[in-house]
Design brief:
This protein has 425 residues and is an alpha/beta fold. It has helices at residues 14-39, 65-78, 97-109, 113-130, 137-152, 164-180, 193-208, 284-293, 338-355, 394-400, 402-423, and strands spanning 52-58, 85-88, 211-217, 223-226, 232-233, 238-243, 245-252, 259-265, 269-273, 298-305, 312-319, 324-331.
Amino acid sequence: MRAPLKRELPRPSNWLRSARTVAVFAVVFAVVFAILATAAGPARADDPPSIVYPIYAQMPEAPQNDVAKAELTRASARYHLRGIEVIDIPTPPLPQTGAAIKAGLELVKKLSFDDARKQLAAAAEKVAETGGAGLTTDEISDLYVGRAMAIARADWKPERSVDEATRVRAYEDYVRAATLTPNRVLNPHDYPPQTLEDWAKAVAEIKQRPLGTLTVSGSSAALVTFDGQPPLSARGGVTFKGAYGEHLIFVEEPGRVPWGSSVLVNAPSSNVAIPARDGLTLDDAVAASHAKRMGAKFALVAELRLGEGPPELQLRLVDITGIRHDATVVPLTTELGSVDAAAMRLDEEARRIEKLGLAPGNNLEAPPPLEPGAPAPVLTAVPPPAHPTLRDNPSAWAREHWPLVTAVAALVGASLVLGLTVGLE
């Protein structure tokens, strides 16, 4: 009899063998990645408190505050920092010019012309410096009319008026007021005849002057106020029209210090470029005091940096004596994880400074005063950060190289799916 034939199973294809190999590597990689993720997991109850106190400096009227605060909160939790504190960045207060103008006008009504002139002169100087910040067109016009009356000592009795030269000097303020409000009509019951006469003359002169066009250009986020009128956006350059003479512009912009100035319109068209201004920021000393109050040795301060491009977040490391050790600026929304990487680096730098014994609070005793003529002490610089290695500190290495780790994981996953799909056909 013939021996029964053995049925041979089909040998697995090359694609299937490759898929199996890829699957093995994927499993090994997943285990390693899980170990690294576990090593960077939540802090244990017996871990010592962090020496870094995160602070979010909230930018006034910035719509990106919520996103930035959430990014810092997530990074702080990931690297076991303390809970963040939100501190509002103070904005420069508007000058109280309106109250000063009202006080000066009351003195004019009381015929206290000398005191009124001093009060209104100080207010006029502040208006020129700030571009009339916080004032309406009518308030600015009242300022100049009131100062003109104080200079001319405008009284209901003509014999008490000043000489003609002083009256001419006062007339300049009537012209300033008429430049802003050429259609204003003074009530004869509220103003003496001399004021009514000079005001009518100033209005007639202004209406004879040509109109000029003033274009103010700057950031698209800037709002421009012209002569106390409602603000307009500077996007693409904003244009105003007014009679030849002195005018006022005031600029506000989120994240920037306000700016204002007086400008002279004396041409058919002229341009004003909004100058660069300092960004609003939280003082390092304030951040240091908050961190010290919470028992930390460093403050990690995060605050927005706004401009024409995408919003950015600045992170800086400040010790409790107010010394800034490092700072970096990262994209807020365009690069996922950039805030995490910056927070990790600054946290590691703080721990390295403490390890070297250079952190504030390690030496509580103040150094003895220098002898007269003795050389100043040499300050030791902190060495640059040492990058962790995969062998010595795998969790730190994974955090620093998270883009590479994520890319490899994606590549392995894609290879596994493709190999199984082709091999099983």
